[in-house]
Amino acid sequence: MQRINHYTGLDASERGAVIALGNFDGLHRGHQVVIETAAAVAKGQGMPLAVACFRPHPSRFFRPDTPPFRLMSSRMRAKILKEMGVQYVYEIPFDAALTSMDDETFVETVLHQGLGVKHVVVGEDFKYGKARCGDFDSLKKHCTARDIGVSGIAPISLHQSYGKYGSTEIREALREGDVFFAAHMLSRPWIVDGEVVKGDQLGRTLGFPTANIDFADRIRPRAGIYAAECRLDGEEAWLRGVAYVGKRPTVEGSDYRLEMHIFDFDADIYGRILDVAFRTFIRDDVKFDGLEALTVQIKKDVDGARAIFGMM
Asked: pTM value?
């Protein structure tokens, strides 16, 4: 799969694709239907399959000081898209030039002249163009005028009482610690990936060494303890353990951390890329009277997580 971070001056081989267009943060079930529809069109017409998204996320461009909210890293998104058979990922620069385009200019400049797309698939609630002036109807109008096919996908959900499968809904679930419902909407466990970095090594001192990962621009879930699994980059095996998320109030910590304790594991993995998959919430983060009380509780958390995995 090829990642392309511009829409001008493309080689002929990089143009003429069927594209799924959107932000695709999380690649949840709704996103998957959009991409699968594009894949069916591409296969039927003998054309390449591509995904076009925006970099940075529009919310980050307009509100640079907003708290971290991303559901996945670019690495994880690219990995999943490749597994879905996507051949090209166009990461369209979301900048002042793009935000000044009205809906027709976007279609002409980016989709038609730039990417040379043959067919575009979007969610029916897709908005684009300056001040979000464009919608699905205008996209269809401007694309049809340029002989570009258009398909729209209605929002999907398990049941109308649960609402649609959407990135906003997944973020809300994670803030509540409901990683099970988030996993349902995603069709896979929610994963935080990153390089293992050195922490304070307090866990090792207490007998529970951890692999620490920076959340970066990803959403912070509810602070507490989770049953989790992890996988080292380049390896197939998922290793079980407990993940801590929070600011470590017992030792007066200040930064929000992800610390993964892996069961029955003792190896130097600093500098390796680790995927941490959240399985279920165990308890909230609390401040203990001291390290002895914290150690006692960690032992209970580990036993609890082992019991949970024994039932899974």
From this structure: 0.92
